[in-house]
Amino acid sequence: MNKPIKVTVSVCSLFSVNNSPTPRWGSQSSHPVANATVxxxxxxxxxxxxxxxxxxxxxxxxxxxxxxxxxxxQADNLLxxxxxxxxxxxxxxxxxxGTCRYRPLRLQVTFTLKEGAxxxxxGSPCDGATHGAAFFQxxxxxxxxxxxxxxxxxxxxxxxxxAAPTMVLVHxxxxxxxxxxxxxxxxxxxxxxxxxxxxxxxxxxKLVHEDMVANHAGESWWAGTAQLKHTSVGIEIVNKTGPFSxxxxxxxxxxxxxxxxxxxxxxxxNILAHGDVRVEKxxxxxxxxxxxxxxxxxxxxxxxxxxTAGLCSKADPSLFKDSQIDGEYGGYFKDKPTxxxxxxxxxxxxLRKDKTPYGxxxxxxxxxxxxxxxxxxxxxxxxxxxxxxxFDVPTQAAVDRFRxxxxxxxxxxxxxxxxxxxxxxxxxxxxxLLDRQR
Length: 438
Hints:
The chain is of the alpha+beta class.
C-alpha cells in the first residue's frame, strides 16, 4: 500500500509585506487562524485548521497541475457584509476584543506529484487579492499569511445621543508594524484605539464601528468643541519615520471618501491632523494650549494627496495672489516684506511710521481661530475679546500646526516648534481661509 502524500497548510496573521514572511504581529505562531476551512477547489480535498492554524491535505489522488487553494473562515470569523466601498468591512459590535474577521482567500498553487512525492509551486492570490499571501515553510508546508480586515478593539460606548461623526482625525502609529498598535488597542486595561488602522501596503483593518466612540483623540479641542472622540473618526497609519507609502495615501483617501458619503457632516474642512486638536487639558481647569502631537501624523505626511482629490481643505493659490497680502494685516508685510514675527511680540509695540498699531497679532489670532485652532490658554468668556494681541505660546503653537498641515516641506522635522509667521505663512493662511468659504 502506498504511503499517503500529505501537505501541511499553516495559517496565521503575519501582516507580511514585500513578499517577506517576517511576522509583523507577534511570532509566526502567535496569531493562528483556527477552525478555518482549507480546500483545493474542485477536488473534494479539504481540511479544517486546528487551534494552531495547521491543516493537512492528502493529495495522493491528485494529478499534477494547477489548483486553487481556497480558505474560508468559520462563521464566527467571517467578515460581515458592508455596503461601503472600503475593503475593510465590519464585524459585530458584540465581538470580544481581539476577535478577527476575514474575507475568503483564494491562492494559486501548482502540484507536481512523482514517485510518491509532491513538489509545490506558489502562484499569485486570485482576483488581485491583497489580504493574503503564501510562503514555503518547508518543502511540503505552506505558510499562509491571512490578513484580517476586522480586529475588534476596545471602545468607549455609543456616541452621545447617537450623533453621527462630523470629523476625521489622522494619526500615525510611531511604530513600524501594525502589531504594536493592535497589541495596545486590544487589551481592556488600556482602552485606547482608533476606528481604522492602515498598514504600509495599504491594507485596511477596521477596529471600531463609526457609530461607537473610539478613544483616540485624548484631550482635544477644535472650533469651540472639546473631547473630540465623541464627534470624530480616527485613522491610524503605520509609520515610525520617513515617507508614507502611495498605498497608504490611496487607502486613507478611500476611507475618507467613504465616510464623507455616509456621513454628510464630515466635510472636507473637517479632515484634521491629531496634532491640530491635541490640547493640554480640555476639561476644567482648562488649558487649551496645543501640545504633544505635533508629529501626528507629522511633517512626512503629504496632505496634498488628499487635497488634490478634493477630500480636505487646502491653501489654493488661485484664491489669493501673493501681492494681495500687502492689503492684509494692516499692511504689515507691505512695509516689512521679509519680516518674521518675533516670539512674544505684542501689537502694542508693532507700530507703523505714524505710531499706530498694525493690529497684526490680533488679526492672526482671529484668522487661526476662525479655522478652528485654539489660540487660547483657556476658553474665553462670552462677550470677552478673546485675542490677546500677543504672539504668546498658544498662538505660536497654532502657527506651528498650521505650517505643518498646509505648507508641506517647510517644517524640517517632528521635533520642537516651528512658529514662524512670515509673508509666506500669511499668504497660505489667507488662501485656506478663502478655501474654507467654498
